[in-house]
Amino acid sequence: MPISKNQSDELTIVTSAYDIALELTRRVRKFPRDLRFVLGDRILDTAYDLLDVLLEAKYVHDKAGLLIRANGLLDRLRYQMRLCVDEKLISLRQYEYLAVKFDETGRMAGGWKRSRKEP
């Protein structure tokens, strides 16, 4: 059975959230011990929450609240990553890569939310 456009969009955004969680897991693993268990845990909790929220959104009829929450989580990750740059835990180049992923995922969430609105 061919995959629908909506199912394809859902898969793309979930894959993007998975990629973010994977990348952040790899980055946090390299944090100094004192920050790995404070800042690192908060970053990973946020990333995994993002993945969970988007997975849940695939299976519920009213997605708007979950997609708004996903955008809030993405915003939280942006600030957490800025803190990492300021603390020299990640490079500016690594931050730029992640910022692009956050923006892409946010745009997909917004598009998914708009596509679900009834005329």
Question: How would you summarize this macromolecular structure in one to three sentences?
Answer:
This protein is mostly helical and 119 residues long. 82% of the residues lie in helices and 0% in strands. It has a single domain, classed as Up-down Bundle (de novo design (two linked rop proteins)).
What do these coordinates show?
The structure is a single chain. With 119 residues, the chain is mainly alpha-helical. The chain has a single domain, classed as de novo design (two linked rop proteins), CATH 1.20.1440.60. The protein contains 4 helices and no strands. α3 (64-86) runs antiparallel to α4 (92-116). The chain is elongated, with a radius of gyration of 15 Å. 27% of the residues are buried. The model has no long low-confidence stretch (mean pLDDT 90).
